[in-house]
Design brief:
This protein is α/β, with parallel strands linked by helices. It has three domains: 153 residues, FAD/NAD(P)-binding domain (3-Layer(bba) Sandwich); 52 residues, no CATH class; 130 residues, 2-Layer Sandwich (D-Amino Acid Oxidase, Chain A, domain 2), CATH 3.30.9. The strands form four sheets. Strands 6, 7, 8, 15, 16, 17, 18, 19 and 20 form a nine-stranded mixed β-sheet that branches. The protein has a six-stranded mixed β-sheet with strand order 10-3-2-14-22-21, sandwiched between helices. The protein has a four-stranded mixed β-sheet with strand order 1-13-12-11. Strand 2, helix 1 and strand 3 form a beta-alpha-beta unit. The chain is globular and about 65 Å long. The model has no long low-confidence stretch (mean pLDDT 94).
Length: 409
């Protein structure tokens, strides 16, 4: 049984990924002297979405102009680069190519290029010959060059954020799972496996479990998290020369994922992938990982069946590619024909926590749910890592007025 201590805090943050840590750092900077505790269920930080992504600094080319994603990604790219430079964190603005491999993809590529321009990005349409000057082994009929895309060590970013937060007086409690959230008058009571925290304000950044945390507190995000596993391979060292930057296909606007692509990694190596298949557990990083309770949640949810009905052909193709390395290899060969099956070795998978509406519609933007003296981050997939410092500023901008109104701190 947990040892219960009744500790009053000005703010409790749940979740030790990059968004939770950015909130802790930003809030403690803007309001020195607040008592802030961040609670993370794992024994170390950035164990899930943050530590398992491709490490890309996104440009913001894909996102709807005027959306929170587009604005925060564009500003967040600059903030993240400045943060990395100031703290000696490895990064490289190597740029990327988005390539059309068939003529029928040209209209979608043109639309993507125009969206990039609308989002204020320095993007250019280039010929196959120009593309091969950057990526000699690429196959394309046309390409969009995005020079502002980069790669970075996001785990290193999290360590620096944690160091700054601790220096500002934030308590970071690791290996501590939240088992209950209760109202206590105007305050909240956060019950963990180790202690009980009373807090005047609550921020949840729970990733795969963000909807659970919101509902525990009494909020309604209007959506449910459905987990999709992204499976990767890596190129063997002898074939690293095939990729100089990042190479992406033209995305299908009807499907929420970008398709398999090549990503140079900040500490060496080249990722190839991911595909996207339904995970059978919210933290189901392996094919054999099954959580019957969490799978039941998905199968009982109308939104999943609406999505499955609309995308069953693509979904079936993703499952087949997951089970068949030759099929995965053929997808990669559309971008770089020289890649062979023997050039690929398995790499750790990630989980995308995708918020899905009851009608099957994707929550396409970041979703922040405001509650009395609480705020829940209920949808923060890619480009949340890129935009994390700006997401934190947005959250703190909502938290501080409530703190002032309550006379906290």
């Amino acid at each position: 049984m947990a040892h219960i201590m009744d500790r009053m805090q000005d703010c409790v943050i749940i979740g030790g990924g990059i968004v939770g840590l950015a909130v802790a750092k930003t809030l403690s900077e803007q309001r020195p002297g607040l008592s802030i505790t961040l609670v993370e269920k794992e024994q170390s930080l950035a164990r899930h979405q943050t530590g398992r992504n491709s490490g890309v600094i996104h440009s913001g080319i894909y996102y709807k102009p005027g959306s929170l994603k587009a604005e925060l990604c564009r500003n967040g790219r600059e903030s993240m680069v400045n943060f990395a430079r100031d703290h000696g964190i490895a990064y490289d603005l190597c740029g990327k190519l988005i390539v059309a491999t068939r003529d029928e993809e040209r209209p979608r590529m043109q639309a993507l290029y125009e969206r990039g321009k609308e989002n204020g990005l320095d993007v250019s349409l280039i010929t196959p010959a120009e593309a091969r000057e950057i990526e000699p082994h690429v196959n394309c009929v046309a390409a969009v060059r995005v020079p502002s895309t980069g790669i970075i060590d996001y785990v290193g970013v999290c360590e620096a954020l944690a160091d700054q937060a601790r220096a500002n007086g934030v308590t970071i409690s690791l290996g501590e799972r939240v088992v209950g959230i209760e109202r206590d008058g105007a305050d909240h009571r956060v019950i963990t496996t180790r202690q009980e925290l009373r807090t005047r304000y609550l921020v949840t950044c729970g990733g795969q479990y963000s909807d659970h945390l919101a509902r525990q507190e009494g909020g309604d995000p209007g959506a449910q998290i459905v987990p999709f596993r992204g499976e990767y391979y890596e190129l063997v060292p002898e074939k690293h020369h095939l990729v100089n930057t990042l190479i992406y296909p033209v995305p299908d606007p009807a499907f929420p994922f970008l398709g398999v692509h090549f990503t140079k990694m900040i500490h060496g190596g080249v990722h190839a992938g991911p595909n996207a298949v339904l995970a059978l557990a919210r933290e189901g990083y392996h094919k054999r990982d099954v959580n019957l309770s969490e799978l039941g949640e998905v199968l009982r949810y109308s939104g999943f069946w609406h999505l499955a009905k609309a995308n069953w052909k693509v979904g079936a193709s993703e499952v087949y590619r997951s089970l068949n390395k030759a099929r995965f290899t053929r997808s990669l060969q559309e971008l770089i024909p020289a890649v062979q099956s023997d050039d690929l070795v398995p790499s750790p998978a990630g989980i995308r926590a995708q918020a899905l509406k009851p009608d099957g519609g994707l929550v396409d933007d970041f979703l922040l749910v405001d509650r009395p003296r609480a705020l829940h981050v209920c949808n923060a997939p890619s480009p949340a890592a890129t935009a994390s410092l700006e997401i934190a500023r947005t959250i703190v901008g909502r938290v501080l007025p409530a703190i002032a109104e309550a006379g906290i701190g």
